# Entry
Amino acid sequence: MPAGQNYADSQLVWIDRDIIKILSEGDMKEIFKDILSVDGIKGVILFSPKGEVVFKTFLSAIPEDPEIRDWALFFESINKVKESDLIFEGGKIYIRKTELGFLIILMGSSTPVALVRLNCDVLLPSLKPAKTSSGLGRFFKR
# Structure
Protein backbone atom coordinates (compact mmCIF):
# COMPACT_ATOMS: atom_id res chain seq x y z
CA MET A 1 0.00 0.00 0.00
CA PRO A 2 1.36 3.44 -0.79
CA ALA A 3 2.90 5.40 2.08
CA GLY A 4 0.41 7.50 4.01
CA GLN A 5 -2.59 5.53 2.75
CA ASN A 6 -4.74 3.61 5.17
CA TYR A 7 -7.12 0.70 4.50
CA ALA A 8 -9.99 2.57 6.15
CA ASP A 9 -9.41 5.63 3.93
CA SER A 10 -9.25 3.71 0.68
CA GLN A 11 -11.62 2.03 -1.71
CA LEU A 12 -8.77 -0.26 -2.77
CA VAL A 13 -6.90 -2.96 -0.91
CA TRP A 14 -3.34 -3.71 -1.97
CA ILE A 15 -2.43 -7.38 -1.58
CA ASP A 16 0.86 -8.61 -3.04
CA ARG A 17 0.92 -5.83 -5.67
CA ASP A 18 -2.56 -6.74 -6.95
CA ILE A 19 -5.30 -4.19 -6.55
CA ILE A 20 -8.54 -5.67 -5.35
CA LYS A 21 -11.61 -3.44 -5.30
CA ILE A 22 -13.31 -3.34 -1.94
CA LEU A 23 -16.82 -2.16 -1.40
CA SER A 24 -17.61 1.02 0.51
CA GLU A 25 -18.17 0.85 4.26
CA GLY A 26 -21.95 0.94 3.73
CA ASP A 27 -21.71 -1.99 1.32
CA MET A 28 -19.54 -3.88 3.79
CA LYS A 29 -22.13 -3.34 6.52
CA GLU A 30 -24.75 -4.69 4.11
CA ILE A 31 -22.63 -7.80 3.50
CA PHE A 32 -22.26 -8.41 7.25
CA LYS A 33 -25.82 -7.46 8.24
CA ASP A 34 -26.99 -11.08 8.62
CA ILE A 35 -24.10 -11.95 10.93
CA LEU A 36 -24.57 -8.75 12.90
CA SER A 37 -28.27 -9.55 13.36
CA VAL A 38 -27.52 -12.84 15.17
CA ASP A 39 -28.22 -12.53 18.90
CA GLY A 40 -25.03 -12.13 20.90
CA ILE A 41 -22.75 -10.86 18.12
CA LYS A 42 -20.53 -8.06 19.41
CA GLY A 43 -18.62 -7.16 16.28
CA VAL A 44 -16.89 -8.10 13.04
CA ILE A 45 -13.33 -7.36 11.92
CA LEU A 46 -11.89 -8.14 8.49
CA PHE A 47 -8.09 -8.22 8.37
CA SER A 48 -5.72 -8.30 5.41
CA PRO A 49 -3.25 -11.22 5.29
CA LYS A 50 -0.65 -8.84 6.74
CA GLY A 51 -2.80 -8.05 9.77
CA GLU A 52 -4.10 -4.63 8.78
CA VAL A 53 -7.74 -3.82 9.54
CA VAL A 54 -9.74 -3.63 6.31
CA PHE A 55 -13.17 -3.26 7.93
CA LYS A 56 -14.51 -3.24 11.48
CA THR A 57 -17.85 -2.68 13.12
CA PHE A 58 -18.90 -3.27 16.71
CA LEU A 59 -22.35 -3.44 18.26
CA SER A 60 -21.04 -2.99 21.78
CA ALA A 61 -18.02 -1.34 23.32
CA ILE A 62 -14.72 -3.21 23.19
CA PRO A 63 -11.89 -2.71 25.66
CA GLU A 64 -9.23 -1.94 23.03
CA ASP A 65 -9.10 -0.80 19.42
CA PRO A 66 -7.91 -3.72 17.26
CA GLU A 67 -5.67 -1.44 15.19
CA ILE A 68 -3.39 -0.87 18.21
CA ARG A 69 -2.05 -4.43 18.05
CA ASP A 70 0.37 -5.91 15.54
CA TRP A 71 -1.63 -8.84 14.15
CA ALA A 72 0.89 -9.97 11.51
CA LEU A 73 2.59 -12.59 13.71
CA PHE A 74 -0.75 -13.98 14.90
CA PHE A 75 -2.09 -14.40 11.34
CA GLU A 76 1.23 -15.80 10.16
CA SER A 77 1.03 -18.47 12.86
CA ILE A 78 -2.54 -19.49 11.96
CA ASN A 79 -2.09 -19.13 8.19
CA LYS A 80 -2.89 -22.80 7.50
CA VAL A 81 -6.04 -22.76 9.65
CA LYS A 82 -9.32 -22.49 7.70
CA GLU A 83 -11.47 -21.69 10.72
CA SER A 84 -11.22 -21.69 14.49
CA ASP A 85 -13.43 -21.17 17.53
CA LEU A 86 -11.85 -19.66 20.60
CA ILE A 87 -13.95 -19.96 23.74
CA PHE A 88 -13.33 -17.77 26.77
CA GLU A 89 -15.15 -17.19 30.03
CA GLY A 90 -16.64 -13.92 28.76
CA GLY A 91 -17.40 -14.89 25.17
CA LYS A 92 -16.23 -16.50 21.94
CA ILE A 93 -14.16 -15.51 18.94
CA TYR A 94 -14.75 -17.13 15.56
CA ILE A 95 -11.89 -16.83 13.06
CA ARG A 96 -12.38 -17.63 9.38
CA LYS A 97 -9.77 -17.44 6.64
CA THR A 98 -10.98 -15.69 3.48
CA GLU A 99 -9.37 -14.91 0.15
CA LEU A 100 -8.85 -11.34 1.35
CA GLY A 101 -7.37 -12.26 4.74
CA PHE A 102 -9.05 -13.20 8.02
CA LEU A 103 -12.55 -12.55 9.30
CA ILE A 104 -12.92 -12.34 13.08
CA ILE A 105 -16.32 -12.37 14.72
CA LEU A 106 -16.68 -11.44 18.39
CA MET A 107 -19.67 -12.93 20.18
CA GLY A 108 -21.18 -13.73 23.54
CA SER A 109 -20.78 -17.14 25.13
CA SER A 110 -24.34 -18.25 24.27
CA THR A 111 -24.21 -17.25 20.58
CA PRO A 112 -24.74 -20.28 18.29
CA VAL A 113 -21.47 -20.78 16.38
CA ALA A 114 -23.24 -23.01 13.83
CA LEU A 115 -25.44 -20.08 12.79
CA VAL A 116 -22.41 -17.80 12.53
CA ARG A 117 -20.58 -20.43 10.45
CA LEU A 118 -23.59 -20.76 8.13
CA ASN A 119 -23.76 -16.98 7.66
CA CYS A 120 -20.03 -16.93 6.87
CA ASP A 121 -20.51 -19.65 4.25
CA VAL A 122 -23.14 -17.46 2.60
CA LEU A 123 -21.18 -14.19 2.66
CA LEU A 124 -17.68 -15.45 1.79
CA PRO A 125 -18.32 -15.50 -1.99
CA SER A 126 -19.01 -11.75 -1.83
CA LEU A 127 -15.56 -11.21 -0.30
CA LYS A 128 -13.68 -12.92 -3.13
CA PRO A 129 -11.35 -10.74 -5.17
CA ALA A 130 -12.66 -9.76 -8.58
CA LYS A 131 -11.08 -11.88 -11.29
CA THR A 132 -9.80 -10.07 -14.30
CA SER A 133 -9.62 -11.82 -17.62
CA SER A 134 -7.26 -10.94 -20.39
CA GLY A 135 -7.01 -11.76 -24.04
CA LEU A 136 -9.73 -13.59 -25.94
CA GLY A 137 -10.81 -15.59 -22.89
CA ARG A 138 -13.10 -12.79 -21.74
CA PHE A 139 -15.17 -13.15 -24.95
CA PHE A 140 -15.78 -16.87 -24.46
CA LYS A 141 -17.29 -16.90 -20.97
CA ARG A 142 -19.81 -19.63 -20.26
Summary: The chain has one domain: 23-128. Confidence is low (pLDDT under 50) at residues 1-21.
